[in-house]
Amino acid sequence: MSEMKRVLVVDDDQNMLQLLYAFLRDSYQVIMADNGKAALESLRSHKVDLVLLDYLMPGMNGKETLEEIRKDEELKDLPVFFLTGVSDSTKISECLKLDPIGYILKPIGKFSLLAKIRAYFEEVELDSL
């Protein structure tokens, strides 16, 4: 059996972090960060296969965090899903310019989220054949 994929979940809401951990823990290795700076530190010390990134966070928001990821030579190609309640079309457009693999609006159910993540990993696997 192949090794479990590692997912970094970034959200400043502790309840959301715990919920997402509960959603993902049976299928993925889950690393959690509660702000953008902590996310960048985690990414520099752990290899991850995917990032789930909130937009609204104090300090460095999700867009700024993804900008930093894209500037980093080792991290720039990292797949990132925004997972956020921000539905403002201007903010979404700004985020999409940073080339995330998706923009998922909260709230989202466990099975919908798992299906999106699984579909992404299956697509990557097919592309590598």
Explain the overall architecture:
- The protein has about 130 residues and is of the alpha/beta class.
- The model has no long low-confidence stretch (mean pLDDT about 95).
- Strands 2-1-3-4-5 form a 5-stranded parallel β-sheet, with helices on both faces.
- The chain is globular, with a radius of gyration of 14 Å.
- The protein is about 45% helix and about 20% strand.
- It starts with 5 loop residues before the first strand and ends with a helix.
- It is built from 5 helices and 5 strands; from the N terminus they run E-H-E-H-E-H-E-H-E-H.
- The protein has helices spanning about 15-25, 35-45, 60-70, 90-95, 110-125, and strands spanning about 5-10, 30-35, 50-55, 80-85, 100-105.
Give the structural class: alpha/beta
The parts where pLDDT drops under 50 for at least 5 residues are none
Report the principal-axis shape.
globular
What is the C-alpha radius of gyration, as a whole number of Å? 14 Å
Euclidean distance between termini CA atoms: 18 Å
Order of helices and strands: EHEHEHEHEH
Record field, number of beta strands = 5
Major sheet strand order: 2-1-3-4-5
Oligomer: single chain
How much strand?
A: 15-25%
Q: How many helical elements? A: 5
Helix proportion range: 40-55%
The average pLDDT is 94
Largest sheet: 5 strands, parallel
List keywords for this structure.
single chain, alpha/beta, 129 residues
